[in-house]
Write a structure and sequence with these properties.
The longest helix has 29 residues. By secondary structure, this protein is of the alpha/beta class. It is globular. It contains twelve helices and nine strands. The protein folds into two domains: 165 residues, 3-Layer(aba) Sandwich (Rossmann fold), CATH 3.40.50; 116 residues, N-(1-d-carboxylethyl)-l-norvaline Dehydrogenase, domain 2 (Orthogonal Bundle), CATH 1.10.1040. Strands 1, 2, 3, 4, 5, 6, 7, 8 and 9 form a nine-stranded mixed β-sheet that branches.
Length: 299
């Protein structure tokens, strides 16, 4: 019986692990916060004390960490403790769900293949709620042998599993383009709401009208609700878009492709980050606009 492990029980990873369990899988988990891993396994499954232990126990390992650097640590260790790659059985599969440089993903596939391991380039989208309900999107690229082993678990975690190529890189490229739109849409939504506030428009009324009009976007509807509630709890932090739009611009720069809107949005998130809002919800980019009084939420 194929066993699955998941590393990283954050906003997305905890929901993905729950979806795997709901589909009937006994889920092995690891998180640097031991108490979080233990809490997840109260309803079944196994929490591992080390990455190496999880790697040895699983045929498919799903990594849901923030970036390439954390993925490197998950796989190859941090100098004080080994990662999971050295203990994974030959032929087992590593599923990488972070948003990363596509060239890095291509190189990682080659590195893992040299160790006898298979790889799925599988960035994710949809937010914590869709991850928890198994309704998120996965943008994947992998060799057929990797898909054969990992596919039941991918389908348990996502409503849409797009197969975009038979080698790494294609999934990450599509995710980066998605992040271009997501970041620009959040920045544009914040700008529109800020202008409304500056002009004395009632924020709740503006939100109601826009969400029922042609100017609406998923990001306006979702993120400006955070602004109305004055809730900047980071489901996706400002610094995530500093990173992701940076990856967008890096990819375009390599082919000398102009991205004026992405560049502006990136600067807006950079400004919000350096102003002290780095760890707040990405809707906090609205705080860079001067001369406005933001909603205070319900008393």
């Amino acid at each position: 019986m194929t066993t699955v492990g998941l590393i990283g029980l954050g906003a997305m990873g905890s929901g993905m692990a729950a979806s795997l369990r709901r589909a009937g899988h006994s889920v092995q988990v690891f998180d640097v916060r031991r108490e979080v891993a233990e809490a997840f396994t109260n309803a079944g499954g196994t929490a591992h004390d080390t990455l190496a232990s999880l790697g040895a126990a699983c045929d498919v390992v799903v990594s849901v960490v923030v970036n390439a650097a954390q993925t490197e640590t998950v796989l190859f260790g941090d100098g004080t403790a080994p990662g999971c790659a050295a203990s994974m059985k030959p032929g087992s599969v590593f599923v990488m769900c972070s948003t990363v440089d596509p060239n890095w993903s291509v190189a990682l596939e080659a590195r893992l293949e040299a160790m006898g391991l298979r790889y799925v380039d599988a960035p994710i989208s949809g937010g914590a709620a869709k991850a928890a309900s198994g309704q998120m999107t996965m943008m994947t690229a992998a060799k057929p042998e990797a898909y054969a082993l990992a596919e039941p678990f991918l389908n348990a975690m996502a409503a849409k599993v797009y197969k975009l190529g038979d080698s790494a890189g294609a999934g990450s490229k599509v995710k980066i383009i998605n992040q271009l739109l997501a970041g620009v849409h959040i920045a544009a939504a914040a700008e529109a709401m800020a202008l409304g506030l500056r002009e004395g428009v009632d924020a709740a009324a503006l939100y109601e009208v826009i969400t029922h009009s042609a100017g609406n976007s998923w990001m306006f509807e979702n993120r400006m609700a955070h602004v109305l509630a004055a809730d900047y709890t980071p489901l996706s932090a400002v610094d995530i878009f500093v990173k992701d739009l940076g990856l967008v611009l890096d990819m375009a720069r390599a082919s000398k492709f102009p991205l004026p809107l992405s560049s502006t949005a990136h600067q807006m998130f950079m400004q919000a980050s350096t102003a002290g809002f780095a760890k707040e919800d990405d809707s906090a980019v609205i705080k860079i606009f001067p001369g406005i009084e933001l909603p205070k939420g319900k008393a």
